[in-house]
Amino acid sequence: MIKAGFIKSRTLIVFIALITLVLSLGAVLYGAGSEADSEQEFLLSGEGAEQLSTIDALEVLQDAYREVARRVIPVVVEINVTDVVTQKIPDFGSPFEFFFGPQREREPKEHEFRRHGLGSGVIVRRSGKTVYVLTNNHVVGEADEIIVTLYNERQFTATLVGKDSRKDLALVQFETEEEVPISVLGNSDTVQVGDIVFAVGNPLGFESTITSGIVSAVGRKPVPGARVAGFTDYIQTDAAINQGNSGGPLVNIKGEVVGINTWISSTNGGSIGLGFTIPINNAKQAIDDFITKGGVDYGWLGINIADPPMELKSDMGIEDARGAFVFGVFRGSPADKAGILPGDFITGIGSERITDTASLTFAVAALPIGETATFDLIRYGEAMRIQVKISARKDEDVIRKQRMEVWPGMSVLRITPEIQKQLDLPKRMGELVIGTVSRESPAALAGFRPGDVIREINSTPVKSTVDFYRMLNDSKSREIVFRIYRQGNELIIGLIRK
After folding, report:
1. Are 211 and 249 in contact (CB under 8 A)?
2. Where are the domains of the chain?
3. Pairing of strands 324-330, 460-461
4. Which of 173, 201, 303, 353 has the fewest CB atoms in 10 Å of its CB?
5. Which residues pair with 325 in a beta bridge?
6. Which fold does the domain 299-406 belong to in CATH?
7. Is-same-fold flag (299-406; 410-496)?
8. Does domain 75-86+111-293 have CATH number 1.10.260.40?
């Protein structure tokens, strides 16, 4: 049996350790002094430890939390946005038309209404009378009116400085000669799992709300296809984050901003302890770019990439390698000009190792525009290096308007017993099947479809994925003729290399 005295002793040791931590924090928040040193020595002495109670320890911790709230709440603002939305509504004309039909054709009427939104922001900088507030891009959206409300209910009309959907960040500004507190930006690279953190904002319209928790994970990357910003990783926290918290800060135990709260993962729309925050280090450069350029420039390579399934990695001889697989290359892009080909497996950029598609996306985005970078890759099982001159990334709308084609615009997979059964394919009909076809790509325009079995390229049987990419990339053949099997029929489809 464990004696009660032993349990009491263990509890006392835990509280002494807690007091040591909190007193160290107090020295940072309040300033170290002789009285604080004397108090700490007393509490850590045998006499002080005997008098220490559970309430004493919690009160010291509570005071530390209060100090964080006192420091942080004044630098967090409420952001109310209004945008004017135009909606077409039918013109029903006379009530008789309900029974007898329209007497004449009418154009739908346009109706304008004001749509309101609510979010949070954090004051990050001041220059003269201009005060800058960092928030989320999805908070400001296409707002026609932005109102910033400070913790003491002072209100200011703000204007947009710049925004970036790829990181979901935006910067707004307002003018005042009055004193305004400025936040302290921390170093998110030092954030670790288990750190105590606080989320501050205006959840559901309840202004100046602060919740506490810990860092649950770091380096979280968005799932491909998820409707969240893809040019950043995330800090995960269990500090409660709800609608209205977006754009508010995540702060550490020192009251330093370590992240911008952005989104939650939830089955019911409310907090279930899965909140995600943009690391503040990912936002610092964006703040400067917003002020000087009105936006953020990213490096662009010009490829379609994905994390390949293990069957494809094995077929390509890269099962033990980590990186990103190139399924397509945009014509006229930096990758195309440098000679990167479909089927290449990118493993590094300079001294940085690439582990997956997300790490490649982040690394390319951070490359200086106009400079040349060295890409390590594996092609047909052989390692090689290619020099690429990086250009500025274009908006997706610009790429579509310029009709930049991705070559070839389709992916292929080794036919497994599962695929053969699912597609009801005859045996020994072929080794590869088309998995996806990109819209408006050469492959799509030529008539390829998912599920087509590739039998031959230029009259040569295709026995592996390596064969497919070797033949596809053979610059000696401008015309590429495919023999495919589709639903009981064999077809000939051609592609022309430009």
Report:
1. no
2. 4-52, 75-86+111-293, 299-406, 410-496
3. unpaired
4. 353
5. 306, 345
6. Pdz3 Domain (2.30.42)
7. yes
8. no
Q: Which residues are part of the catalytic machinery?
A: 138, 168, 246
Tokens matching residue 75: 């630098």
Token duo for residue 82: 């209004």
Helices (H), 367-454: 396-401, 417-423, 442-446
* 410-496 CATH: 2.30.42.10
Per-residue pLDDT of the chain (498 residues; tens, 9 = 90+): 334 443 344 444 444 445 444 444 444 444 444 444 555 554 555 555 555 578 888 888 899 999 999 999 999 999 999 876 555 555 544 444 444 445 455 555 555 556 678 999 999 999 999 999 999 999 998 888 999 999 999 999 999 999 998 899 999 999 999 999 999 999 999 999 999 999 999 998 888 899 999 999 999 887 655 567 778 889 999 999 988 899 999 999 999 999 999 988 876 777 787 899 999 999 998 999 999 999 998 999 999 999 998 889 998 999 999 999 999 999 999 999 999 999 999 999 999 999 999 889 989 998 999 999 999 999 999 999 999 999 998 766 666 655 678 999 999 999 989 999 998 898 888 999 999 999 889 999 999 999 999 999 999 999 999 999 999 999 888 899 999 999 999 999 999 987
CA distance 345 to 26: 52
Measured CA to CA, the distance from residue 135 to residue 132 in angstroms comes to: 10
Quick one: which of 268, 326, 296, 324 has its CA closest to 465? Answer: 326
3-state secondary structure 196-225: EEEEEECHHHCCCEEEEEEEEEEEECCCCC
Distance CA 185, CA 418 (A): 52
C-alpha–C-alpha distance, residues 252 and 194, integer Å? 11
> H/E element holding 457?
strand 453-457
Q: Which residue has the tokens 């994905």?
A: 306
CA 461 to CA 258: how far, in whole Å?
56
Write the DSSP assignment of 426-437 as a string of letters.
PTTS-SEEEEEE
Which residues 6+ apart lie within 8 Å of 296 measured at CB?
Answer: 162, 164, 166, 167, 169, 285, 286, 289, 290
Cis peptide before 408 (omega within 30 of 0): yes
Please report which helix (H) or strand (E) contains residue 315, including its range: helix 310-316
Q: Classify each residue of 295-333 as buried b or exposed e, where b means 16 or more C-beta atoms within 10 Å of its C-beta.
A: ebebbbbbbbbbbbeeebbebbbbeeeebbbbbbbbbeb
Amino acid at 394: K
Bridge partner residues of 209 (DSSP): 201
What is the CA angle 24-26-32, rounded to 5? 80
Closest by Cα among 63, 65, 60 to 43: 60
